[in-house]
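Incident log, structure service

09:12 report received: a user says their structure output differs between two submissions of the same chain.
09:20 pulled the input from the user's history:
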Amino acid sequence: MATIGMNDLKTGLTILYNQSIWRVLEFQHVKPGKGAAFVRSKLKNLRSGAVNEVTFRPGDKFETANIVSADMQYLYAEGDSYVFMDTETYDQISIPGDKIQDALKFLLENMTVRVTTYDGEILDVEVPKTVELTVTETQPGIKGATANGGGKPATMETGLVITVPDFINVDDKLIINTDNGGSYSSRA
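09:34 re-ran on a clean worker, output below:
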């Protein structure tokens, strides 16, 4: 790990700061007319997900964090944990369910996800931007309904509940956007 100062900050850089791991989302060098220059930054805590605005002064030093991301395939659930296999090395790891709550809404067996770690600690499991899921429960479809109608709730095979157009039926395969917590995109 390298020690860097405020002038070395870049968007996307991951640093150790205040006993946690932070990713630089934004930064701006500010040189006031009077006094020393400083850097105003927006940092995301990779453990908690919190976003903070932090100002760095010329003497501030911090270490870069060596973050590793790997494509892994979800294999199966084992109690309260989920087993993933590295698609290159075939190593398997078990991740507690409470670490990947957001991803569980979209996770299907054999799905490839991106797992981010720091010194063996799981920081994030990133699912694809869109996933194909099957409707397991919803009210019967309305003949002649359009996608612009009011919509109705539908439960997907992973347990995710989303609002879908009125013409969707049980066993329909849907494309779901994962960016915003899950929303209907189209039929598959």
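09:41 both user submissions now match this output. Likely a transient worker issue. Closing.
09:42 reviewer note: The CA atoms of residues 83 and 186 lie 30 Å apart. The mean pLDDT is 89.
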